[in-house]
Write a structure and sequence with these properties.
- The complex is a heterodimer of chains A (257) and B (311).
- Chain A is mostly helical.
- Chain A has one domain (3-251).
- In chain A, 77% of the residues lie in helices and 0% in strands.
- Chain A has eleven helices and no strands.
- Chain A has helices spanning 3-23, 25-28, 30-51, 59-90, 93-97, 103-129, 140-164, 170-184, 197-203, 207-220, 227-251.
- Chain B folds into two domains: 3-225, Rossmann fold; 229-292, Alpha-L RNA-binding motif (Alpha-Beta Plaits).
- Chain B is 35% helix and 29% strand.
- Chain B has helices at 44-51, 73-78, 95-105, 110-123, 139-151, 169-184, 196-202, 220-225, 270-278, 292-309, and strands at 3-13, 19-29, 33-37, 59-64, 67-68, 80-83, 157-161, 188-192, 205-210, 213-219, 229-236, 249-255, 258-264, 283-288.
- The relative contact order of chain B is 0.13.
- Classes of the chains: A mainly alpha (257), B alpha/beta (311).
- Chains A and B meet through helix 1 and helix 5 of A and helix 2 and helix 3 of B.
Chain lengths: 257, 311
């Protein structure tokens, strides 16, 4: 395929993916918005006032970047895992597999779809958060880079989950038992400085901690860990998951007999 | 001679240990209308799956218009259109979107894709439904949608895996006319079907596959010439209580007013009519009991079964 043809094939997948989550916006865009508003009200307004300042900011300001990140993570992951699995389940994955579209373009198309939903939800949640607190921008480039890289990483995670999934139950196992606990323990609601040394060290094995902190740095200018190190960790996981996704696609795992 | 498809020593063993293909070799000439027949589970869909790259082969070589799938898969895919056995489109998408999207996967710009999709949907009688979700279509419409989708990138080789399954006879015949038309325009077609009448009337060459092996691969004409006997059903004006006897044909009554007669191809039916006439019985109508290809197909598959079981 020529570069133009590859671009058309990639855009076809991206358009299809965006159309899909926009068509079912009541299921894809509204629920995370409601959930986050509840977090803002309960953790930020009601409980937050009693908790007091954290990291030099009031609790609401501290918690909002983490909550935005949480929405980006769950939605970019959820978009790819549900879309790719239903494509597999209905058999229309074959439409792409019989075509000359290269595997990396298929993967890039789904990642872009996941990133698009992650960004859309992230924007909605950010806008809603402005009703509850004031957000400043410490470093816009870092904000954009972290959000993009995080949504790429979790789109890849969703893709791998969808490849291995054999039923609709399988696509909710990882989000429920892995993603949610890691997100809650990834410094969304607290600074790891509050933890005893041992648990603070253990927390550093959680990749979500790096994303939340790097994003918080972009907004508030404070972070529990080095931002450069955070980018290195996210970049490393992207490379590993991308290589593994390509391996799965090239060998036909779960999609070719 | 140029070939649209060449398969050499193709083997496929699935992960569960089942060997679906045991070294099949086939060649389909460019421009041909080729039938690949076989009983259920014989290996037809596996063969077509390997050709369309949906099934990983265990061993062997496949070339599409000279492009080896192991070396130049992308070029081979560009030349093929696949109509699978099962409905495999997104049931929630609109008919037009399914066809336009498929064109996109082949790198066709959207404006051109829309023009081609419109043309095909009109030709296949689906234009009135182009804005409907695919799930609202009838079975026959869904089959035609898969044909439109497979043709949108104008393939030189069209693979039809039971394209008329579950379609009523009127629609089936209009689909046959459509296939004949695109074949006449130069598209090579490979067809698998359980309707042997379909294969007999459309295809020029044929391969019969059974238990993962090719048991026959020849032209339709020479295959049909192998048929030694033919069976007729005669409808009688009067009831018949005694069978006409002769060594030239075999006869038996299906009911008192229906006689089944099997004759050798070298013989004619005159002696049957003479015998019935002597018995004072008139023949009101007559027809072939089965399609000729069906008889051969059953013979070939049964012979292969006997060889395998050694019975």
């Amino acid at each position: 395929m020529s570069i133009t043809e590859i671009y058309i094939a990639w855009m076809t997948i991206v358009r299809k993916e965006i159309k899909r989550f926009m068509r079912i916006w009541v299921q894809t865009l509204i629920p995370p918005s409601i959930t986050m508003v509840l977090y803002f009200v309960i953790f930020g307004n009601l409980i937050g006032e009693r908790i007091g300042p954290m990291g030099g900011f009031d609790y609401m300001q501290f918690v909002v970047p983490g909550l935005i990140m949480m929405a980006v993570i769950t939605n970019s992951y959820g978009n790819v895992v549900s879309s790719f699995y239903s494509t597999k389940y209905q058999g229309n994955i074959e439409e792409m597999l019989v075509s000359p579209t290269p595997n990396w373009v298929i993967l890039a198309g789904y990642i872009t779809g996941g990133v698009a939903r992650g960004l859309a939800v992230g924007l909605i949640v950010t806008t809603l958060s402005l009703f509850f607190t004031h957000l400043s921008i410490h470093n816009f480039a870092i904000i954009v880079m972290v959000v993009l890289m995080t949504s790429i990483l979790f789109s890849l995670g969703g893709f791998i989950n969808a490849i291995y999934a054999n039923s609709f139950d399988d696509i909710s196992i990882i989000p429920t038992f892995v993603l949610t606990p890691l997100t809650y323990l990834g410094g969304v609601f607290y600074s790891i400085d509050l933890l005893p040394d041992f648990w603070a060290t253990v927390s550093q094995a959680n990749p979500i901690l790096y994303m939340v902190n790097a994003f918080r740095y972009g907004i508030l200018g404070v972070s529990d860990i080095s931002v450069a190190w955070a980018f290195a960790v996210i970049g490393f996981f992207i490379v590993v998951l991308f290589a593994y996704s390509m391996h799965l696609l090239n060998t036909g795992k779960g999609i070719r007999k | 001679m140029s070939y649209a498809l060449e398969i050499e020593q193709l083997y496929k063993t699935y992960d569960n240990g089942f060997t679906a293909l045991q070294g099949i070799s086939l060649a389909v000439q460019e421009g041909d209308f080729f039938a690949l027949l076989g009983p259920n589970g014989a290996g037809k869909s596996t063969t077509l799956g390997v050709v369309s790259s949906l099934v990983n082969k265990s061993q062997g070589q496949v070339r599409v218009f000279g492009h080896d799938l192991d070396i130049d898969l992308s070029a081979a895919k560009q030349l093929m259109g696949i109509v699978p056995q099962e409905f495999n489109f997104n049931m929630f998408e609109r008919v037009i979107d399914i066809v336009v999207q498929q064109a996109g996967y082949y790198g066709i710009p959207k404006v051109e894709a829309k023009q081609r999709a419109t043309e095909l949907l009109k030709q296949l009688g689906l234009w009135d439904q182009h804005k409907q979700a695919a799930r609202t279509l009838s079975g026959g419409m869904k089959r035609r949608l898969m044909i439109a989708r497979a043709l949108v990138h104008r393939p030189k080789l069209l693979i039809l895996d039971e394209p008329t399954a579950g379609v009523d006879i009127e629609l089936r015949r209009s689909m046959w006319a459509f296939f004949e038309q695109i074949n006449a325009q130069g598209t090579t077609i490979i067809l698998t079907t359980h309707y042997l009448e379909e294969a007999e009337s459309l295809c020029r060459n044929i391969a019969i596959i059974d238990h993962g092996k090719i048991v026959e691969n020849t032209s339709m004409q020479s295959l049909l010439r192998q048929l030694n006997t033919e069976t007729f059903i005669l409808d009688l004006a009067e009831e018949l209580h005694k069978l006409p006897e002769s060594s030239d044909y075999r006869a038996h009554l299906l009911n008192p007013q229906q006689l089944q007669v099997t004759i050798n191809r070298q013989q004619n039916l005159n002696k049957v009519f003479e015998a019935l006439s002597d018995m004072g019985v008139q023949v009101t109508s007559m027809r072939n009991k089965t399609n000729r290809l069906e008889e051969l197909f059953i013979d070939l598959v049964q012979n292969n079964q006997t060889e395998i079981t050694g019975a």
